[in-house]
Amino acid sequence: MDTTMKRILLLAFMTLNIFGLNADTLTLKAGHPDTYVVKKGDTLWDISGYFLKDPWRWPTLWGVNPQIANPHLIYPGDRLTLVFIDGQPRLVKKQHIKKGVEGRIVPKSDAIPAIDLALIQPYLLQNRVVEQEWLAAQPFVLSGESESKHHILNDIVFVNANMPIGQKVAIYEPGREFLDTETGDVLGREIILTASGRVTTDGEISKVQLLSNLRETKVGYAVIPVEDEALMSAFFVPTAAALDVPASVIATASANREAGKLEVVYLDKGLNAGVQPGHVFAIYRDGEEIILDNNGQPVRTVDRSSYDNVVAHFSDDKVFKVPDVYHGNLMVFKVFDKTSLGLIMMSDRPVRVKDKLVTPVNLTLKGE
């Protein structure tokens, strides 16, 4: 990742856009500390987790002022104290003044971010979800000057389009097709960045030199022009998602069966449904249907016979649906038209495809 992008991402998370903050009461954790000294490696989410049952609501705990473009920055060594202002818990800080060997005050750097940037930086830059028709219309790699099937840093590849000399491009590997878990409708095609490059020779077949290499580039990979102003903004503040219908997990970024805390998943809702970066969802597993057999004994879904399935379909009086089971929460950090990417921030149980995503419940204040 280049230095410019690193700075953009770090600044985005350190100077959060805090408009739209609600004034709901907070729920303090039992046994919370009264003070906390910030350590290197902390995040605002981590620190709030010592005090709140819902750490995603850290902006309220910090009392962030929406009129201040650059909210309070917290540094390692700062002492945080829990106080109550108008009946609401707030964290206030006593700054740790760093001095040099001669007693001079040394400027501080490395304010702690909202979350660990390293967890999501690869996905901010590398993963996209696009329409299949749009992807099919993009230029692609035909071959390369090297006889190898795998092209790496500084290699020259041939592209089936007349592209202007100096044009910066991103090269993407086609990934999975995502489908709506309920309707089966196509939500988009995953594409994953493999390399970046620059056009060195134009013509009916253009030449592109690979200038960075995340993984090997192969024939058929899409070649997409990149504009500097197209760099994605990562400004957001955690807010409770409120959609008309629940969202669902459609895939894990790792392609594994399950995902846990601090892992990334794809959601089946995006901009078109009102999802925004910073939206927080509670994750639930649908409660299973329990049926009663001929002896009146409960039978779980995994233990059903074919006859039990028929009974479940036709006999409502013998079917009981148990409550949905809470599995954790996640925060959306990147949004596409019909899908989005979220980071699992808390996980009581593994998260799987088809798990339901709903508005997190705000509890009333239970502080001491």
Structurally, how many domains make up the residues? 3
Can you write the helix and strand succession as a string?
Answer: HEHHEEHEHEEEEEEEEEEEEEHEEEEE
- Inertia-based shape: flat
Named CATH architecture of the largest domain:
Beta Barrel
Terminal-residue CA separation: 46 Å
Helical content class:
10-25%
Mean pLDDT, nearest integer? 79
The helix-and-strand class reads mainly beta
| CATH-assigned fold name of the largest domain | Elongation Factor Tu (Ef-tu), domain 3
CATH level 1 name of the largest domain? Mainly Beta
Give the number of DSSP strands. 22
Portion in strands: 25-35%
User: Nearest-angstrom radius of gyration?
Assistant: 25 Å
**Helical segment count:** 6
Low-confidence runs of at least 5 consecutive residues: 1-23, 65-71, 103-107, 228-235, 363-368
Largest sheet: 7 strands, antiparallel
Structure in words:
With 368 residues, this protein is mostly beta strands. It has three domains: 17-113, no CATH class; 121-230, Elongation Factor Tu (Ef-tu), domain 3, CATH 2.40.30; 239-287 and 323-358, Beta Barrel (Thrombin, subunit H). The protein contains six helices and 22 strands. The strands form five sheets. Strands 4, 5, 6, 7, 8, 9 and 10 form a seven-stranded antiparallel β-sheet that branches. Strands 12-14-20-19-15-22 form a six-stranded antiparallel barrel. A hairpin with a 6-residue loop joins strand 7 and strand 8 (186-201). The chain is flat. It holds the Pfam family LysM. This is LysM peptidoglycan-binding domain-containing protein. Residues 34-82 form the LysM domain.
